[in-house]
Amino acid sequence: MKKDMKKATKFAHIGRPKIGVSTSVNLPITRSSTLLFAKAADLYNDDLRLYGRHGSPVSDALEEAFCELENGAGCTLTSSGLAANTLSIQAFTKAGDHILVSDSSYGGTRYFCDNYLSKFGVDIEYFKPNIGKGIAGLIRHNTSCILLESPGSLTLEINDLPAIVEYARKHKITTIVDNTWSAGLVYNPLELGADVATHAATKYYSGHSDVMGGAIVARTKLHANKVRLTAKALGNCVSQDDVYQLLRGFRSVVTRFNQQAETAVQLAKWLAKRPEVQDVRHPALPSHPDHKIWKRDFSGAGCIFSFVLNPCSEKRVLNFLDRLKLFGKGFSFGGYESVIIHCDPQLRRNFDPEFGGPLIRIGCGLEDVDDLQNDLQVSLEKTKFSD
Question: Which CATH architecture has domain 253-382?
Answer without folding.
Answer: Alpha-Beta Complex (3.90)
